Amino acid sequence: MGDDAVLTVMVLGEIGVGKSAVVNLIVGEDITRDSPDAEVCTNHTTRYEATMESTKVHIWEVSRFNQPKKDPKKNAPDIEEKFRPILEAKASVNVVLFCMRGQKLTSMTMQIFKLIHGIFEKCIPIVLVINHLERERDMQDWWRRNKSKFGTGLSGARHVCVTGVRDARHEGKWRDS
Q1: Rounded distance between C-alpha atoms, residue 30 and residue 24, angstroms
Q2: Longest dimension (CA), the chain
Q3: Rounded to 5 degrees, what are φ and ψ at 72?
Q4: pTM score, two decimals?
Q5: How does pLDDT run across 72-119, given as a tens digit for each residue?
Q6: Sign of the CA dihedral 93, 96, 99, 105?
Q7: Quick check: 12 and 62 in contact, CB under 8 A?
Q8: Under 8 Å between Cβ of 18 and 99
């Protein structure tokens, strides 16, 4: 990327999957408020700015992405509302990070992922960020056990297995993330 180039990342997923913790993990410091509980930390789509290895990074955390409708046309108003700040900023998104909890793969998570995959698959790379894997001895073990659940078209998706928990007990896994 050139000196003036900006890497734009969109972070989204269900409520409570640790999107704010993933933003902090990307930057390497606490720039967002996150919570280890099920508490909602981000109430609206928010842009964070950072510089990483001389590259400007804009990270858009999309809030409260939950419960898509069965009819895709009925999702449009909700999606438009969540993406409006990004569109108004005329941001060109380079990568979408779809965050999910590693403890269990729910049907709602899969519904949301399929919706996001349908919107972005042909124009923006999507990376699955499987979070909350601090209990795994090897965080990649989760992917090996679960990748087939994404279906044949998605099991080869780009992914990263992480923990957003940053405490003394999990510091090594947080750094590895």
Answers
A1: 5
A2: 46
A3: -55, -30
A4: 0.82
A5: 566 666 777 777 888 788 888 999 999 988 877 777 787 778 778 888
A6: positive
A7: yes
A8: yes
